[in-house]
Each structure stands twice: as structure tokens, then as C-alpha cells.
Amino acid sequence: QLQLVESGGGSVQPGGSLKLSCVASGFTLDDYAIGWFRQAPGKEREGVSCVISDGGTTYYADSVKGRATATRDNGKNTVYLQMNQLNPEDAGIYYCAARRRWGLCVAWDHDVWGQGTQVTVSS
What does the pLDDT look like over 63-77, one tens digit per residue? Predict the structure, then answer.
């Protein structure tokens, strides 16, 4: 089955940038799409990005639209989340998660989750 491992989190100043990585392993079929979620302390888990396999379209949450870019390196079995212009509201634990190729862009339809990587934004 799929295994996902996130990395790249850390502490940045407001206005800074981070590039998160998610390494996928344990699969040979391209049956899954990988998206990003985040959860701030005391807040609900929020979808950050979701790839629609059919047309290769990526949807972004309004809160990160224009500041987040999700990409994939097929050769490295790795997906990335580039986050720019970070502000304190972006702080939290970021997760990558895999869903079936034709699954829904909602948390409960994702089958495999990484352990999360912490993002802190402070001056």
C-alpha cells in the first residue's frame, strides 16, 4: 500500500517561503492522487490542494490561492507544496494524503496519510 512521508517544515518569518515534500512509496499503479491538508491548533483540518486526475487540474483553498503551488516529480515519487508569502495564519501541521484516482477532494475519502510536518510562522 501507499506510504507517505512529509518533510520540509520549519520556522519562517512572515513573508517567507517553504517548500514541503511528500515522498510516496509502496505502489506501482497510478491509482491515487495526492493532496495537501493542514491543521492549526484548535482549528478544523483544512484542505490546501487537491489534484483532479482527469484533467490534471489542481484546486487550492481560498486561503492559500495565489500563494501555494503543488507539483509532482514522477521520477522521484515525490509531490511538493511551495508556499510563499507565509503569514501566522498559515502555521500548523501540514499533511499529504492519497485518495483513489476518482475519489473526492475531501479528507474522509483519503486512504493514506503522512505523519505531518510542522510549519511555524513568527518574527
Answer: 999 999 999 888 888
